[in-house]
Specification:
The protein is built from 28 helices and 32 strands. It has 887 residues and is of the alpha+beta class. Among the domains are: 190 residues, Immunoglobulin-like; 133 residues, Neutral Protease, domain 2; 96 residues, Aminopeptidase N, middle-beta domain (Immunoglobulin-like); 132 residues, Peptidase M1, alanyl aminopeptidase, C-terminal domain (Zincin-like fold, Alpha Horseshoe), CATH 1.25.50. It has an eight-stranded mixed beta sheet with strand order 6-5-9-3-2-12-15-14, with no helix packed on it. A hairpin with a 2-residue loop joins strand 10 and strand 11. It is globular and about 85 Å long. Bound molecules: (3S)-3,7-diaminoheptanoic acid (B3K) and zinc ion (ZN). Zinc ion binds next to helix 3. Its cofactor is Zn(2+). This is Aminopeptidase N. It comes from Coccomyxa subellipsoidea.
Length: 887
Amino acid sequence: PQTIYRKDYTPTPYLIKHVYLEFLLNEDSTHVISRLSMLPNYGSASAPPILELDGRKDIKLLTVKVAGKELQPSEYDLTEKLLTLSKLPKGEFEVEIKENTSLEGLYKSGGNFCTQCEAEGFRGITYFLDRPDVMAKYTTRIEADAKSYPVLLSNGNLLEQGSLEGGRHFAVWEDPFVKPCYLFALVAGDLAVREDSFKTMSGRTVTLRIYTRAKDIDRVAWAMESLKRAMKWDEDTFGLEYDLDLFNIVAVDDFNMGAMENKSLNIFNSRLVIASPSTSTDMDYSRVEGVVGHEYFHNWTGNRVTCRDWFQLTLKEGLTVFRDQEFSADLNSRPVKRIEDVMRLRTAQFVEDAGSMAHPIRPDSYIKMDNFYTLTVYEKGAEIVRLYQTLLGKDGFRKGMDLYFKRHDGQAVTCDDFRNAMADANGQDLSAFAAWYAQAGTPHVKIAASYNAANRTYTVKASQQTLPSPGQSEKGPVPIPVAVGLLGQDGTELPLNLKGESAEPATTKVLLLTEKEQEFVFTEVSEKPVPSLLRDFSAPVKLEVEGQTEDELVFLLAHDKDAFCRWEAGQRLLRSLLTSLYTSASASKEAKLEDRLSAAGAVPDKIVAAIGAVLSDKELDGAFVAAAISLPAAAELIGSIPNIDPVLLHNVRQYLVRELAARLRPELEAAIKRNESAAGASYVPGDSKQAAQRAIKNKALSYLSALKDPQVTADLLQRTRSATNMTDQISALACLVDSESPEREIALAEFYEQWKDDGLVMLKWIALQAGSNFEGNLKNVEKLVSHPAFSITNPNACYSLFLAFLRSPVNFHAADGSGYTFIADSILKVDKINRQVASRMVSSSAFTAWKDYDVERQQMMKEQLARINAENGLSENVFEIVSKSLE
Ligand code: B3K
Ligand code: ZN
C-alpha cells in the first residue's frame, strides 16, 4: 500500500469549470456519461501537461473523447486507478467519458440508489480529478424506471423533469455553486417525503424536505424542527444565511458514518433522522439535533469554503463540530453539554492520542484517508477552534469568522488560512498555535500554587510536557490557555488582579501558558484561596495540581461557580479513590476482592457525603447531578496505571458502585421519587427539564440495581413494562442485563416481542446484550451474530454488536483470550464485506493500545494483530491500523 504525504502537495495542472453528468440507472448496471469543461492551470508558457483522472478498477470505460474527437485505446493510458490523457490541446477543452459503473461511490440501500463520495468515492462513479481543490459547477441528469424510482434527486435546483418511453422518467438538477466532487450526491428511490419551509433573514423562503422510507415518515418531526433551529441559529450567531431555495435530507439504513453534508442534499444514517418518544432516547434526540445541525453548518464551513487537500480535514470538521457544540449548548444546558463533550474527549480521544494511531489534528501522512475521520481530527480539532474563542472572546471569534468567509468564499484552503483570518481580524499573532496542528499527544500540565500572606500574592507555577508519539519523539510547548478562578474560604469568588496586566479585575482570568515553564502572580489576594483551574475545560490537556487535597476537592464540588470545575472536582476525588482501590486490590490477588476492600474501610465517609450532598441538592440541574455522581470511565484510568488488568479494574469499579449505592440508598430512593413525575408527563422532545429528571432518576436506579436486591430487580422488570418512553424503558432494561437472572431473560424476551419489527430499536437490544458484563456472555454474543435481528452487511448492526462487545471489559478482555479471538475473527469477516466498518472495529478496540495492559493480555492482543495482518487480501484500511499497532 502507498503512503500519501502532506508535504507532497502540488497544485492541480487542470481545473474543471463545469461538469455535466448523466446517469442511466438500471438494475444490473449504471451507465454514466460525463462531460468535463477543462481549464488549464499550468501557466501559459509551457506545453499542456498530461491529465491524470482518478478512477477505480470497477469502472468499465466505454469511450473517451477529447475536444469532440474519440480516442483509440492506444491514445490513452488506462490502469486500475488512473486514466491518463496526453497530447492535449492548449487552452480550454472538453473531455467526454462514457462508462459503466459498479456499486462503489454509487450504491444501493434498501432498494434505493444513493451515493457517498467523501473522501474519495467519486472516482468510483466516474474518472475525475478527485481532489477537493478542484471546484466546479455541476449539472446532473438522472434517468430511471419511474415505478421503482419515483424520486430522483441531486444537488442544487430542479431544472427539468418528465417521463420517457418504457415506463422511465428523468430529472435534471443544476447546482449554481462551485463545489468539490466529494459533495456530489444522487438519490433515486421510492421514498416518502415531509415538507416544511424556513424564511431566511433576508426574507427568502427555503423549502425543506426530509425523505425516508414510507414506514418512517411520521417520525421526522424532530429532525425537521432541529433543521429549522439550526438555520436560525447560524443566522443569529454568525450571520450565515442558507444560499439555495431547497434543502433536502434523505435517510438511509445502510450508511458507514452518521451523515454526509452533500450540497443541498444531505444523506443521513436513518438512526440520526428518525425519532419518536417510544422508540428513541433523550440521547438519541440530542444526537439528531446535533448532527442535523452539524451537517447544515457544513454548508458554510466545508462547502462554501472547503479544504485544499484531505490533510486539512480538521479545517472543516473541527470547526463544524465546534459550531454544533455551541448550537447544542445554546439550545440546552450549556454546562451539561460541555461536560458531556469533555467526557467523550477524555474517554476516547485521549486514548487515541496516546495509542498507536496517534496523529496531529492535521496528519502528515495516510494510507487510507477514510481512517483519519477520527476523534482527533473532529473532537480535538473542535477544542483547538475553541481555544481561539477562549482567547479572543466571542466577538473576536466572530470577527475572525467574518474575515475567513470574506477572504475565502468559493475557495479550497488550509488550516493556516483559518488561523490567519482569526489573527488578522483581531490584530494578534497566533503563529504559535501552529504547534497544535503539528503535534500529536495530549499535553500534561502541572500546576503548583502558593499563597504569600505577607505580600497578599498568589503565585501559580505552571509547566507543560507532551509525551512522544509514533514518529514524533521530541515535542515543544504549545500555547495553553488556563482559565483560573480563586475561591475564598466562604466559597465566593475573589476579584483577580494579574501582575503586569492592566485589565480590570475579574473573577475568571485566562493565563496563557506558552513556555515549558511559566509563573503568574495574582496580587491583592486577601486570603488563602482555593484555586479553580482549567475552568470550562479551557484547553484539551491533562491537568495535575500539586498538593491538591481531598478537602479542597470536596470544597470545590460543593462551591465552585464553574460547573465544569465543580463536576471535575468530584471526578478527581473518584479517580484517585478508584486508583487507590485498584492498587490495593492488585496487591493480593488471592483473597476475595470484596472482603479485602471493605476490610480496609476503603471508601471514606467524606467522599460518600460529598456525593450524597450533590445528589440531594434540589437546586442543581438533574443532568448535571447525573454526570456528577457518575464514576469516571475505566478508559480514563487505563494508561495512567501501567500494565492494567482491565477485569480487575472493572470489579473494583463495581465494588465502588455497590458501596455508594448501599450507603446512599435513602438519598437515591428520594431522588427517584422526586423525579418520577417526568415519567407521567407526556414526553416533550427537546424539553431539557424533563430529560434532566429522567437522567437523574435513571442514574439513581442504575446505582440501586448494583445491590442485586430482589425487590429492586422486580421493580426494574416492572419498569421495562410500564415505561411510557424509550429513555425509561431502555434504562431499566440496561440495569437488568449486566447479570444473569430470570428477570433479565424475561425482560429481554418481552422487549424483543414488543420491538422486533423496528430495526432501530433492535440495534439497542443487540448493543445491550453484546456489552453485558457477566462472565461467559461471549456464548450469547456468538448466538446474536446469527440472530435474525442482526445483519452483518448493515453497518449500524455491526457497530451495535461488535463495538458494544469491545466495551465489555469482562468479556472482551477475558483472561483466556476468547474475546480477542472472537473480535479478530469478526474483523476478518467484516473486512470482506465493508472495509470501513472493519477498520472502525480495529481502531475502536484496545488492540491499538495493547501496551497499556498486563503482559499476558499484551501478548494475546499482539497475536491477534499479527493474525489479522497475515490475512490474504486484507483491505488497505485495516492494514494501515493493524500494521501501525504492530510497530
Ligand atoms: N463529512 C462526513 C464524513 C464523511 C466520511 C467519509 N469516510 C460527515 C461529517 O463529518 O459531517
Ligand atoms: Zn462534519
